[in-house]
Structures are given as structure tokens and as C-alpha cells.
Design a protein that fits this description.
The structure is a single chain. This protein is of the alpha+beta class. Helix 4 runs parallel beside helix 6. The strands form six sheets. Strands 21-22-1-23 form a four-stranded mixed β-sheet, with helices on both faces. The chain contains 14 helices and 23 strands. The two termini are 24 Å apart. The radius of gyration is 22 Å and the shape is globular. It is 32% helix and 24% strand. Bound molecules: ligand EPZ. The site of ligand EPZ has 23 residues, from helix 1, helix 5, helix 6 and helix 12.
């Protein structure tokens, strides 16, 4: 297993380029198989989740041609199976987007039911509700979802809760249903909009993405396209809060500032300066951060995927903050690790009460999940002394070249893969 070894204390200073949004790319790669014509996708993030999903797509028979680290050509005409292998769902839940894509195109799909994950049980009942509303027969047999339909017919679907995955999965199936579909209480995230824009570039007829009502007029077939993935607002937000927590000054490039407004508002509230440009934001923090309260909400509210990162910054702030996690039931697993670095965090149910401390001390910690792992790296960058982050495989799922980008901002961080290397690096930097 690989680790990060970090010597904290350097403010992050400089410029960092943001890549394509992992959570848009995962859905778009599955939607790409809905046509029998070639699809070229660029600005893909080179992260393990993307690489696993591309493997899942090629295993069902699609032709996947890697042009370079960030560009792929997909051709769905060679698909020979509508059944997705369990190993892929285990590795990456988002393989369940193949349900909507294959059901839309072939009117049948078989995908293993994804289990829970480190941040919660994450049921997919709303996805299945949507497929049934479109006329599909949906059964769960031997741990797999079998969905099939003579024809898919448009319908008026009201989601019980705002769900990114359900909105996207239903949108894909409805894109090739007969007639019109309305999805009410739809998720409004930028990556939902990106998937709708991608499908429309293939000839779909989707209106209203980005609002809570999406209208879809089904089409017979979709055609090939070339498409570039939207910048990753969560990768951008992670570097914004890393700048804040290390009292740095960072220009985060290749972003859409509008997508970052909830993060920008909170950073300004706690005393950072945030300057917006057309496709960049600059975050600087010269004085100790102030406290605030934050509650995670569906977009445009403060994103749940940024909850661990803001909590680390608030754990160093002057005063007591309250962080409420309203989306997932188990997203404070990093709190115990942060406490080992000197933070004062009390978790009660879906709320964390954070008494800011003057500073952290480095410790050996373990990444419990993707975003919490990134947050612990931020804590190590701000800490005095050496921090070792274990289980960084989680972080590599969603952050391309995390250590390289941080080094570019002046961080002392190395990726190592053995205790011997840890000792060697520690000797170099102490
Ligand atoms: C997507 O997950 C993202 N993953 C998550 O990012 C992100 O945290 C989440 O949206 C919220 O923004 C991908 O896009 C691959 P939801 P998703 O459906 O679609 C409940 C990351 O770090 N729910 O919006 O699974 C669910 O349990 C990951 O990049 C149901 O009850 O999230 C949750 O409490 C982590 N039934 C809430 O809704 C359903 O059928 C929101 O989940 C669907 C969801």
C-alpha cells in the first residue's frame, strides 16, 4: 500500500491547474456507449475511478481507445453483453450508470446492486423507481438488478429526495424512451448539467438541467460526438481550502467560478480573500481563520464532498464552529484521525462541534475515504512536523497527481510505498 509523507508548515503558494470533473466523467463515459458511433471525450481526469470504469465498459464489449491520459475514444457498436461484472461495482459504485445507459439503448441491463460504502448505505431505490416509471420491469435477483422493457415510455417522475445519481441514471434511460419525461426534484449539480449537455451533443433532447425540473423528449437513436468534461469543482474546492488552512496564496486555474460560489462565500466568511477571474479563483489567507457554521446541502448549497476539507480549516480557526452533514450518514470518520493531530472535534450524530486550536502536530493517520483522505493531507500540510497518511488509494480515486500538484505549490510531500522509504524521507526532511 502507498502512503504520503508530509512535512507540514509551508504555506501553499503558487498556481494549480484543475482537471475534469470525476463525477461528470463517470456518467459521461457510460452515456457514451448509448450510440453506435465513435465518441471522443477529453479533459478526463487521470484517476483510478475513471480507469476502472473504462475497463468495465470494455469488458461488456465497447471499443475503448485511450488517445492520451486525458482523452479517450469510445465506440458502443461492439458491445456484446448487457451484464456488468460484480468486480466493477465493488470497485466503483458509479458503474450503476450503465443501468440507465444500457436500458436506454438496449431496453435491458443487468448490473450488480452496489453495496454501501464508507460514507453511508447509499441505496438506489430512486433510480429503480425512475426506471419502473418508464415502464421497465426491475427485479433484484442474486444481488443483481435486472431491468428490461419492451419499450420505455416517458413519464412524470418526482424524486423523493434530491439525488445526483438517480437524476443522471433516469435522464439517460429517458433520453431514448418514447415520448416525454419530466424529472421533478432533480439534482442541479454542474455535473448533472454536463451529462445533459453531453447527451444533447449526441442528439438527445433534454431541457432544464441545472434546475429542479428536467424535461426530456425521447429520441430513437443518438449519434457520435466530441466532448470536453467540465472542470472539477470539488478538486478546485479542495485546493481552495488547502490554501486557507496553510495561510497560503494560491491561484486555482481552469475553473468555473460560478460553481464554487458556496465555497467562496464560506472562505470569505472565515476571513480569506477570494478573487475571481474568468476561469480562475485566487485564495489567500494572511491571518488566523475565523469560525462559522456550515450545513451540507444539494447544489447550490455547500457540497457534502467539501465537508471534510472545510472541517479541517475550521479545526484551526479562532472559535467554535458547527458542521452539519445532511446528505450522508457516516461522513465524519476522519474526526478521530484529526483528533490524533491535536484537533478538538466532537461528533454527535450528523453534527460536528469543532473548537479551533492554534495548530496541529504531525501524526500517522489513515484515509477513511476519498474526501476525508484529502482533508487529512490538508491537515498534514498545516501541521508542525511529519504526517504520514496511509491508505492513499482512496485519494487516488479522485485526485490526479495530488502530491505533484501540492509540491508545485511548495508543499513538502512524497508518495512512498514502504516503511523503509518513509524512514528515508523522514531523515531527508527533518
Ligand atoms: C454523487 O453520489 C457523487 N458521486 C458523490 O461524490 C456526492 O457526494 C453525491 O453525489 C452528492 O453530491 C458520484 O457522482 C459518482 P446522491 P450519489 O444520489 O449520486 C440518498 C465523491 O466524493 N439516496 O445525490 O450516490 C443517498 O443515500 C462522491 O466524489 C437514496 O436514498 O449521491 C444520499 O443520502 C462521494 N436513494 C442522498 O440521497 C437513492 O436512490 C444523496 O445521494 C439515491 C440517493
Amino acid at each position: 500500500m502507498e502512503q504520503y509523507v508530509i512535512r507540514g508548515g509551508n504555506p501553499l503558494v503558487g498556481e494549480v491547474e484543475i482537471g475534469g470533473a470525476k463525477n461528470a466523467a463517470l456518467a459521461i463515459l457510460t452515456a457514451a456507449v448509448m450510440t453506435d458511433e465513435p465518441v471522443l471525450i477529453d479533459n478526463l481526469p487521470d484517476v483510478s475511478d475513471i480507469n476502472v470504469l473504462l475497463e468495465a465498459i470494455s469488458v461488456i464489449g465497447a471499443t475503448v481507445e485511450r488517445i492520451d491520459r486525458h482523452t479517450v475514444r469510445i465506440n458502443g457498436s461492439t458491445i456484446g453483453s448487457i451484464s456488468v461484472d460484480y468486480e466493477f461495482i465493488k470497485k466503483i459504485r458509479a458503474s450503476y450508470y450503465l443501468l440507465g445507459a444500457l436500458l436506454g439503448k438496449y431496453k435491458k441491463a443487468e448490473v450488480p446492486l452496489p453495496g454501501g460504502c464508507n460514507i453511508g448505505s447509499r441505496p438506489i431505490d430512486q433510480h429503480l423507481k425512475g426506471f419502473r416509471a418508464l415502464g421497465a420491469k426491475v427485479d433484484i435477483l442474486h444481488g443483481a438488478i435486472l431491468a428490461s422493457a419492451e419499450n420505455l415510455t416517458g413519464n412524470h417522475i418526482f424524486l423523493d429526495m434530491v439525488s445526483v445519481g438517480a437524476t443522471i441514471n433516469i435522464m439517460m434511460a429517458a433520453a431514448m424512451a418514447k415520448g416525454n419525461t419530466i424529472i421533478e426534484n432533480a439534482a442541479r449539480e454542474p455535473h448533472v448539467v454536463d451529462v445533459a449537455n453531453f447527451l444533447n451533443s449526441m442528439g438527445a433532447n433534454i431541457k432544464g438541467a441545472g434546475t429542479d425540473v428536467i424535461r426530456i423528449r425521447g429520441v430513437e437513436a443518438l449519434h457520435g460526438t466530441s466532448y470536453s468534461i467540465v472542470p472539477d469543482m470539488i478538486e478546485a474546492g479542495t485546493y481552495m481550502f488547502a490554501a486557507a488552512a496553510t495561510k497560503g496564496d494560491v491561484l486555482i486555474k481552469n475553473v468555473i467560478p460560478k460553481h464554487l460560489e458556496a465555497m467562496t462565500a464560506k472562505l470569505e466568511e472565515i476571513g480569506c480573500d477570494v478573487e475571481e477571474f474568468d476561469d480562475a479563483v485566487r485564495v489567500s489567507a494572511t491571518k488566523r481563520l475565523g469560525r462559522t457554521h456550515v450545513k451540507t446541502l444539494p447544489y447550490p448549497g455547500f457540497p457534502t464532498d467539501m465537508q471534510p476539507q472545510i472541517s479541517v480549516a475550521l479545526a484551526l480557526a479562532n472559535g467554535t464552529s458547527i458542521v452539519t452533514e445532511s446528505i450522508f450518514e457516516n461522513r465524519f470518520k476522519y474526526a478521530d484521525e484529526l483528533t490524533r493531530m491535536g484537533a478538538c472535534v466532537k461528533v454527535e450524530g450528523n453534527t460536528a462541534i469543532i473548537d479551533g486550536v492554534r495548530g496541529f502536530t504531525g501524526a500517522r493517520v489513515s484515509a477513511p475515504d476519498l474526501r476525508a483522505g484529502a482533508a487529512l493531507v490538508i491537515a498534514g500540510l498545516a501541521a508542525e512536523g511529519i504526517t504520514i497518511v496511509d491508505d492513499i488509494v482512496y485519494i487516488q480515486r479522485g485526485y490526479e497527481d495530488f502530491e505533484g500538484k501540492l509540491k508545485g505549490l511548495g508543499a513538502e510531500i512524497e508518495k512512498v510505498s514502504s516503511e523503509k522509504e518513509i524512514q528515508k524521507y523522514k531523515l531527508q526532511i527533518v
